[in-house]
Design a protein that fits this description.
This protein is of the alpha/beta class. 26% of the residues lie in helices and 29% in strands.
C-alpha cells in the first residue's frame, strides 16, 4: 500500500508517498480502508522536528491521526465493529492515516459514521473537534459571558466558535478580513482582523472591562502574557499550547489538549451529521498529498484540509 511519510526530520517538501507494508490488526484493533484523512498542526511539528524534544518519532514517520473509512479487518476481541462498517477514527497512538490503510484501536476514539455525514467532513473532526471540545469544557462558558477566540478560523477554532456560541456566549473571533462572513456564520458577534489591528487592544475596545475568557489557540509560553491582558480581572485564559501557571490581575489559566476531549468524538460526529456543527473542508486527492501538506504548513487555512482516496 502507499502512505505519506517523512524519512527524517526536515521541511515538509521532503515528504514522499511511498510503498509500505500493509498493517495487520492485532487484538482489539481494526484495519481501516481509508476514504479520507485530515492533517493537523501536530503532523507538521512532528515532521519538521519542532516537537522532537517533547514527542520524538521514529523514521520513517507516517503522517496522520484522523481518518474516515471502511473497516476491512477486525482483530481478535473486537466487539463493536465488523468488516464493512463505516467509521471515524482518532487513531493515536497509531500514526499513519494519510495512507490507503490505517490501524485504529477499539475504544471511544473509534465510532460509526452516520450516512448523512460525508467521509470528508467526518475525517475533519477527530483531533480538531475533540481539542475544541476540551477547550470549551475548560472555559465553562455561561450564557451572556464573553469569549475571545484567537485562531478562530482554523480547524480547532472554527469548531470552538460554534461550541461557544451554542453555550450562549458572546464570541469575539480573530481572522483575516475575508474570514469575517464565515466567522459570523459560525456564531461570532464580533471579528478582529489580526493582520491589521492589535488583537488585545481591539478586544479591549470592544469589551473595555475585558472578556470573561480568552481562548488562545496560537500563542504559547511568554506570548500568552500579552494575550491574558484581554481578559477581565480574575478572568480565565485557556490555551492548547502551554505556558505560565498564571498571570497578572488574578487571571487564571487552563491548559488542555486532545487528551481531555477523549470520549466526545461520538457526540461531535452526531452533531455534525445532524447539522449542528458546521465542517468546512478543503480537499486534495491522495495523489497530491505532498502538495496538500505543503499548503497546510505554509498558508492560512479556513477550516480543515482533507486528503481523499
Amino acid at each position: 500500500m502507499k502512505a505519506l511519510i517523512a524519512s527524517s526530520y526536515g521541511p515538509v517538501d521532503q515528504l514522499t508517498v511511498t510503498d509500505v507494508t500493509k498493517p495487520v490488526p492485532a487484538a482489539g484493533q481494526v484495519l481501516i480502508k481509508v476514504r479520507a484523512a485530515s492533517l493537523n498542526a501536530l503532523d507538521i511539528r512532528l515532521t519538521t522536528g519542532a516537537f522532537r524534544e517533547q514527542m520524538p518519532v521514529e523514521h520513517p514517520f507516517h503522517l496522520g491521526l484522523d481518518a474516515a473509512g471502511t473497516v476491512e479487518v477486525v482483530g481478535e476481541g473486537v466487539s463493536r465493529f465488523t468488516a464493512g462498517d463505516e467509521v471515524v477514527a482518532f487513531t493515536y497512538p497509531f500514526f499513519g492515516t494519510v495512507a490507503e490503510y490505517a490501524l485504529a484501536g477499539e475504544g471511544p476514539n473509534l465510532v460509526h459514521r452516520p450516512k448523512s455525514l460525508s467521509p470528508e467532513a467526518a475525517a475533519a473532526l477527530p483531533q480538531a473537534a475533540m481539542t475544541a471540545a476540551a477547550a470549551h469544557d475548560a472555559a465553562q462558558l455561561k450564557s451572556g459571558q464573553s469569549a475571545l477566540v484567537i485562531g478562530a478560523s482554523g480547524g480547532v477554532g472554527s469548531f470552538l466558535v460554534q461550541l461557544a456560541h451554542r453555550s450562549g456566549a458572546q464570541v469575539l473571533a480573530t481572522g483575516k478580513p475575508e474570514d469575517e462572513a464565515y466567522l459570523r456564520r459560525l456564531g461570532a458577534v464580533e471579528t478582529i482582523d489580526y493582520t491589521g489591528k492589535d488583537v488585545v487592544e481591539e478586544a479591549r475596545r470592544l469589551r473595555p472591562d475585558g472578556v470573561d475568557v480568552v481562548i488562545d489557540l496560537i500563542n504559547a509560553g511568554p506570548g500568552l502574557a500579552a494575550t491574558a491582558a484581554a481578559a477581565r480581572n480574575a478572568g480565565l485564559l485557556v490555551s492548547t499550547l502551554g505556558g505560565a501557571p498564571g498571570f497578572e490581575r488574578g487571571v487564571t489559566v487552563a491548559y488542555v489538549g486532545v487528551d481531555q476531549g477523549v470520549g466526545q468524538l461520538e457526540d461531535l460526529v452526531r452533531r455534525a451529521a445532524e447539522g449542528q456543527l458546521d465542517v468546512q473542508v478543503e480537499t486534495f486527492p491522495f495523489s497530491r498529498a505532498v502538495e496538500a501538506a505543503q499548503r497546510f504548513a505554509g498558508s492560512h487555512s479556513r477550516g480543515k484540509l482533507v486528503i481523499t482516496f
